[in-house]
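Incident log, structure service

09:12 report received: a user says their structure output differs between two submissions of the same chain.
09:20 pulled the input from the user's history:
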Amino acid sequence: MHETGIAMEVLRLARETAEREGARRIVRLKVVVGRWSGVEPETLRFALETLREGEMLGSAAVEIEVREAEFECGGCGTRFGASGYFDPCPRCGQEGAELVAGDELLLKELDVEDA
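09:34 re-ran on a clean worker, output below:
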């Protein structure tokens, strides 16, 4: 379950960012998980909620935003959602579009209380 390691790193980054900005406590953290990132969103949520500890993170609310895959056609530039790399462009029919969103994993937002 690699989500545990990912959760540990997300919490470390959140803590370091909050401390650097002089925050006393993290109230909420929001993570974006792309559908094609290889990370199971609910498993990550469980790991984040289980591993948060201490005054800084112990009661932080965890939000997970799942981002669907988005492709861009190399032929006509149309952006579209698809279930696979070889789904044809809905506009021109070309296959093999480039994945431009949906494989990301990022700490998007932190809400904090100041010291």
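09:41 both user submissions now match this output. Likely a transient worker issue. Closing.
09:42 reviewer note: The longest helix spans residues 3-20. The CA atoms of residues 52 and 58 lie 5 Å apart.
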